[in-house]
Specification:
By secondary structure, the protein is an alpha/beta fold. The protein has helices at about 15-25, 30-35, 45-60, 70-75, 90-100, 110-115, 120-125, 135-145, and strands at about 1-5, 25-30, 65-70, 85, 150-155. The chain contains 8 helices and 5 strands. The protein is globular and about 35 Å long.
Length: about 160
């Protein structure tokens, strides 16, 4: 089992991926951990370093779930995956989920630091349907529609039962 989960911030990717990882004994990779510079928030690493780390992960781990909003990185993982999941619950669900996001200690020193970024995150999430970058709906839809393998689009934020 090798699953890639893509979607907007707040779509439920991390919760869904963690649930799958626990349920099926999969190694979980949050793409933020290889896309961002270590110890820095939203500071991108060089693309070749990200690709190198991604390939090393998928070649090292026999069973995994990868999740993130980076359509270009997701595309690089697709030749290795057995299923693509597109989390697409809509804007209101994503905004609501970001408002109640628990502290992510692997990304932020404290909850206050995480919450300080919420105004920017709200705007970025709201622009999902109008942007045309690798983290946009346009990119995610294109990647999902073009994938010929097993795929699933989830339009609710309901998570699989553990």
């Amino acid at each position: 089992m090798r699953i890639v989960v893509v979607g907007n911030s707040g779509s439920g990717k991390s919760t869904y991926a963690r649930t799958l990882a626990t349920r099926h004994g999969l190694t979980h990779l949050d793409l933020d951990t290889i896309v961002w510079e270590p110890g820095q928030i939203a500071m991108p690493r060089k693309a070749d370093a990200v690709t190198r780390d991604l390939v090393a992960f998928v070649e090292r781990e026999p069973r995994w779930v990868i999740e993130g909003c980076y359509g270009d990185v997701v595309e690089a993982a697709l030749p290795y995956c057995t299923q693509l999941v597109f989390m697409n619950p809509g804007l209101e669900a994503c905004l609501a989920n970001n408002e109640r996001r628990p502290w992510e200690p692997h990304k932020y020193a404290c909850k206050a630091d995480q919450d300080a970024g919420l105004p920017f995150l709200r705007t970025w999430v709201a622009d999902y349907y109008t942007r045309a970058d690798a983290c946009s709906y346009t990119c995610h839809r294109r990647v999902f529609d073009a994938f010929a393998g097993d795929k699933l689009e989830l339009t609710t934020v309901d998570q699989p039962q553990e």
